[in-house]
TrEMBL record:
Highest classification ranks of the organism: Bacteria, Bacillati, Actinomycetota, Actinomycetes, Kitasatosporales
Family note: Belongs to the glycosyltransferase 87 family.
Transmembrane segments: 45-65, 152-172, 184-215, 221-249, 256-279, 315-336, 343-361, 384-405, 417-437
Composition bias, Low complexity: 481-507
A matching Pfam family: GT87
UniProt topology in membrane: Multi-pass membrane protein
Segments for region (Disordered): 474-507
Location(s) in or outside the cell: Cell membrane
Alphabetic keyword roster: Cell membrane, Membrane, Transferase, Transmembrane, Transmembrane helix
Chief subcellular location: membrane
Protein name: DUF2029 domain-containing protein
Length: 507
């Protein structure tokens, strides 16, 4: 591993082939790692950023090609062909079913019952995602058959989501300045290629990544604004504020956290408040659905329900309790760790806690974790193990749906096989989480800290002195038997500093 060297006043960027054995071995396919003097003597057009942008566009295009069987008709014939070919997407279905084809205004106009058989009266998505969908519908011509218009709607959305994918690669690449090639983990991600056009999650993921990049530049207010916008597009980014709170509390940077929190609340209100005031019933649809939704595909709770026969009618409370418990454990880890964790590590763990505890896991939810996993543990081996589990789950969910929609054919994956795939997906998330926890407890294993860095993406947290730390103080030797006989107490009073395991506060 190469330590930072100064070249014309700037740190030499880290090449993945110099610190990752798997990357170095894979580079033999294209002639081996770059030499020490590669690119010396002039400006190279093929910069890391340009290479990664082209790679992610190519991978995104391959993902679109993978949807061709559905584009050619499987989306519109009904039944299980779209599952057999693993090319399902919500986008063309919701064009008609949520009234975009009929110019229904999201949240303000109710969905006619003849359009939606789902029981939704209004669009069940957060406001900023609804605006994204509406803009795509404006760009979709109204001429031709409904099938043709739905196909065009999917293409338009795919083009907009491709822009989000490119932005995501650029943002992750620039979050850690010395590691421009880390965006390649995103660009080459099979999970990104397969799931990017299933739904609109990539829009919120790109906004959240923009917030983290701005935080890494010590711009907490702007970072909060982007995190607030991301939360207005998908609910999960609000957990990034929890990660920032824990780290800012330990580092004594609460003023910066206050700026980020204020920016997030302000941005969220700017987007949501007009809809709350003018179309409260439509705005409530997403939150009512999230609160009342039962056990669904991909979750831990589905395995419990199917294996025990218990309907788990109180699953929302169970899921919330598990999430709170996991976040409490992450908070304890943050304050008790021998060295303050990096932002990428804590952000990954809190979102992974939501993934593990949630009532549902749709295959596109892998995108939530993708940039955070790269910031937390940029190692090809660990990321590929996790991605392999996610690709397996991607195939399993469609095969399970083919099984349950195929009538008497029973082709696809049975409930037992699907439960195994869900378990493998959960184990993949837990494996990567365990590696991140190991890096926090044993910082010498942390890839980003092996050159002496603190938190390259931490912004105001980078290099900050701790002001709130919890440690366990070992017990001091107690008085001997003679001292006890003379009236001394063998046991210290409850809560005294010498009691094993008693916490103290280090300022």
């Amino acid at each position: 591993m190469r330590t930072p060297q100064e070249a014309d006043g700037q740190d030499v960027p880290v090449r993945p082939t110099e610190e990752d054995a798997l990357a170095a071995a894979a580079s033999e396919l294209i002639g081996g790692p770059a030499g020490r003097h590669a690119g010396a003597g002039g400006h190279r057009w093929w910069t890391a950023l340009r290479v990664m942008v082209l790679v992610v566009i190519g991978m995104f295009a391959l993902g679109m090609v993978q949807k061709v069987p559905c584009y050619d008709g499987a989306w519109f014939t009904g039944g299980d062909p779209q599952y057999i070919h693993a090319c399902y997407s919500d986008i063309p279905h919701l064009y008609h079913d949520r009234g975009f084809a009929d110019d229904v205004v999201p949240y303000f106009d109710s969905i006619p019952g003849s359009l939606s058989g789902s029981g939704f009266h209004y669009l069940e998505y957060p406001v900023l995602t609804g605006l994204f969908m509406e803009v795509a519908s404006w760009l979709t011509p109204h001429g031709g058959s409904m099938q043709h218009r739905s196909q065009v709607f999917w293409v338009v959305n795919s083009g907009m989501l491709m822009i989000c994918a490119v932005a995501l690669v650029v943002l992750v690449s620039r979050t850690s300045r010395r590691r421009p090639w880390d965006g390649l983990f995103i660009a080459l991600s099979p999970a990104l290629a397969l799931s990017a056009t299933i739904n609109w999650d990539l829009f919120a993921v790109a906004l959240a990544a923009a917030g983290l990049m701005l935080w890494s530049r010590s711009r907490p207010l702007a970072a909060g604004v982007l995190i607030g916008l991301a939360t207005a597009a998908k609910l999960y980014p609000v957990l990034l504020l929890l990660a920032l709170f824990l780290l800012c509390l330990r580092a004594g940077r609460m003023r910066a956290y206050g700026a980020a929190l204020g920016g997030a609340i302000g941005a969220w209100l700017v987007v949501n408040l007009p809809v709350i005031l003018l179309a409260r019933s439509g705005w409530d649809q997403f939150y009512d659905y999230s609160r009342t939704r039962g056990v669904d595909y991909g979750s831990l709770w589905l395995i419990v329900m199917q294996r025990t026969g218990n309907p788990l009618s109180g699953v929302s409370a169970y899921a919330a309790a598990l999430l709170i418990l996991l976040c409490a454990g992450i908070a304890a880890l943050t304050f008790y760790a021998p060295r303050r964790p990096r932002l990428g590590q804590v952000a990954f763990l809190v979102v992974a806690a939501l993934i593990v505890s949630n009532k549902v896991y749709s295959p596109q939810y892998v995108l939530w974790l993708l940039p955070l996993a790269v910031l937390a543990r940029p190692r090809w081996r660990d990321l590929l193990i996790w991605q392999g589990a996610e690709v397996l789950y991607f195939l399993a969910i469609w095969m399970q749906l083919a099984y349950v929609t195929g009538g008497t054919k029973h082709h696809g994956l049975s409930a037992d096989g699907y439960q195994l795939a869900v378990a493998i997906h959960l184990l993949g998330v837990l494996y990567l989480s365990a590696v991140v926890v190991r890096d926090i407890l044993l910082p010498q294993y942390d890839v980003l800290r092996q050159d002496g860095s603190d938190d390259p993406a931490g912004g105001v947290l980078d290099g900050a002195e701790d002001s709130f730390v919890l440690t366990f103080v070992p017990a001091e030797p107690g008085p001997g038997p003679q001292d006890a006989a003379d009236g001394g107490s063998v046991l210290p009073p409850a809560g005294a500093p010498g009691v094993p395991g008693a916490p103290r506060y280090d300022d």
